[in-house]
Amino acid sequence: MAARMQSRKSGFLERTTASFVDALEHTFYAEETARAHGLLQRLDPRVKLLGILALIVPAAAARSFAVIGCLFAVTVVLAGLSRVSFSILLKRVWIAVLLFTGVIALPAPFVTPGRALYQLPWLGWTITSQGLASAGYLVLRVETAATLCVLLVLTTPWNDVLKALRVLRVPVIVVTILGMTYRYVYLLLQTAHDMFESRRSRMVGNLTGRERRRVAASSAGVLLSKTFDLSSEVYLAMQSRGFRGEVHILDEFRMRRFDWIMLAGFTLVSAAAFWWGR
Amino acid sequence: MIAPGDAEAKPRQMPADSLSSGGDRQRNPIYNQLSCLADNARSFIRVNGLMHIPDGYLSPSTCAVLYASAAPFWYVALRKTKKMLFTRLVPLISVFAAFSFVIMMFNIPIPGGTTAHPLGVAIASIVLGPWASMLALSTALFIQAVFFGDGGITTLGANCFNMAIVGSLIAYLSYRALAGRSAITSQRRVVAAALSGYLAINCAALCASVELGIQPLYFKSATGAPFYAPYPLSIALPAIMIGHLTFAGLAELVVSGGIVAYLQRANPSLLRFSAPGIPLPQEEAQLVTRESGWRTARPLWTAVGLLLVLTPLGLLAAGKAWGEWSVHDFSSPAARQEIAKVSQNVTPPAQTPSGLERLSTIWTAPFPNYSPPFVRKPAFGYILSGMFGIGIIILLSTLINWLAAKTRHGPPGAHTRAEET
Known about the structure:
- The structure holds two protein chains of two kinds.
- Chain A is an all-alpha fold.
- Chain A has eleven helices and two strands.
- Helix content of chain A is 74%, strand content 3%.
- In chain A, helix 5 packs antiparallel against helix 7 and helix 9 (172-201) packs across helix 10 (209-240).
- Helix content of chain B is 65%, strand content 1%.
- The radius of gyration of chain B is 37 Å and the shape is elongated.
- Classes of the chains: A mainly alpha, B mainly alpha.
């Protein structure tokens, strides 16, 4: 038992590498579905970004279960038409959100004052209708908004999402920074993953708590030094290719009739949700 | 990069297998699946910890206010960093934002056997300064929220305000205040970094808990059911702060202090931004050799200056210093008595020592009895000769130093030539 406890304790290297791999896996899946031929994939990224934002905001604002439920249903239909696998949505979004927000919302029915609905047999705690409603609002809202956000990412190549941000008047320099960050997140994830893997392969036995903290902090420090070297190299590479501080983004998006129809559809649904959900 | 096919197969094998001692675990697929799911959930909760507020927890009006509060900071930060970094802005902020993103995925072992995720806000502020840190962290938070669904889109303004803006400012200010003017490699900087990280993450958590805690106050249905985060301040505040004062705060403390300690050993130049005017260790060494005349010998010069000022005190001292007797003192009875008194009652020889008598005629100092003949007042003469003597000593020692340095390094031209080749 003691050995098992110790091996679990030293598992921070494994856990960290696992979270790196998880992030990488998420990207590969996103890139794969973004290439599929579905409804949302065919849509102009600008329309998609505006449309999904136009659904997220009423989902966050609506004060009626029916409206949030309808928005959730629209989202599920959109996911189906865009060939996004429901098992992935279930695992990555619905269960994950339920585990996180569900746990947070769990005490709400007991602590919110209001009309008593039911009393727990042994503990004597009372469930109030107001508390139950508030927990319901929270979970439903978070599920809907999270699914919409995931839908945007799973059906759009990341660079297109960023270029579409120009519609919202986000400065070009910010769009460039976001694009480059995304690119280097994977390089650094890979670097960090390799560092932890090589550390693991050289490790025999268990480290003490102090040593584990030192390893973690030193690894972060090494990664920081590498980050700075990388940024200098990237800068030199950019300069040698003629970078003088100005950024231009190619604007190759073209609106077709299908895009206009969908934009009208999104606007209609959003306006209706706002109206009914007041 | 790993090919997509590999990524499908790899992830589930990695964690917990190789070092796990329980053999039955590896054999049981259901157990593996369950533990994997639990791990995912645990890490999800740890990543969030309600610091990354998801969509739906805050009312749209709160979100709008916090976007509006964050906007001026973003604007100023962008302008300031543009001015400071020029064309370097894009690559530096991008790569550092990527680093911030990755560091948020680290599992930091904290005392007590559990692990927690750090935010890395203190280290970003220490290395980049508060403005660039705001931009880098906001970028990382954007990618986390939009691409990885960790934190919301409507709540992005709130999250950036709490963590990137409040966190960076608190971390930077507290680090500068705590580190003071200590050397870059001093232990005090490690402690300052650790404490500023702890403080910053707790201030960010405080902001988040207040934002969440005021929701049921303002946004509830006619019957009193809260529409958004359901807990009032009396519950939200302690619930979030306890987690951050302990686990998350400790993870930040360990990471901030640990990285600064590592950088002090490996790459102290990265700590220069938050220590303006304080030389790096190598520079310090160079300064010592280059400015040996003043910097290192400062206490010595102070002492010399003090002695110079105190020279007139010599006039107040009665009698003569032991051993500084002249030939005439041996013949004068009063002086003989004085010598015997200060020499533990050993009477001096009746005759003036012949050696002393002979040698005293060889050298007549230019300032006999320290009083130059052209100076009428003996006291003034005494002071002047004292100062003159010190001046001669300083001049001589400077000359010796200069000669010694010249023989050690060779002529200056030869030195640079050697460096060039």
